[in-house]
Amino acid sequence: xxxxxxxxxxxxxxxxxxxxRGWVRVYSHTEPRENIVDYRPWYLQGAEGWQxxxxxxxRRHGKGVVARLAGYDDRTAAAALLGRDIAIRRxxxxxTAEDExxxxxxxxxxxxxxxxxxxxxxxxxxxxxxxxxxxxxxxxERLIPFVQGQVIRSIDLAAGRIxxxxxxxx
Length: 170
What we know:
CATH superfamily of the largest domain: RimM
Number of strands: 14
Number of helices: 2
Helix content: under 10%
Largest sheet: 8 strands, antiparallel
Shape: elongated
Structural class: mainly beta
Mean pLDDT: 93
CATH topology of the largest domain: Elongation Factor Tu (Ef-tu), domain 3
Strand content: over 45%
Order of helices and strands: EEEEEEEHEHEEEEEE
């Protein structure tokens, strides 16, 4: 997930059309994928900025998600939505438990080693089969496993800082 301005979090994208009655295929960043339809309303990026859009219905379909949005009743109307990002307001997200974080909360944080060496800032994260990975950009790019307790020693959102047990030469 990435931040869309100060108020919106991008949670997916309209990736295709489904059928002839205005349904769209959705690429979802939520886990599980179908959770994206539980966030209402969606905000779609358009020429006039983020505009609210009512999700009439949606469901998992194969490995993806399909949804029907209010006001888009046929394939031609829905085609205007192709490629648009889907965002929600930050306050629509549930509270996290202690030691849980949304990726968007970690992006932009300064990363330093336990010895105080500055490595850069979190540019983005990605998932692997084993764990999530921080992409840290400073004087060079580093990929740091997001393994709390072992590699990630502390996260201070208020200070905007992550402390890692990581060799700066790696």
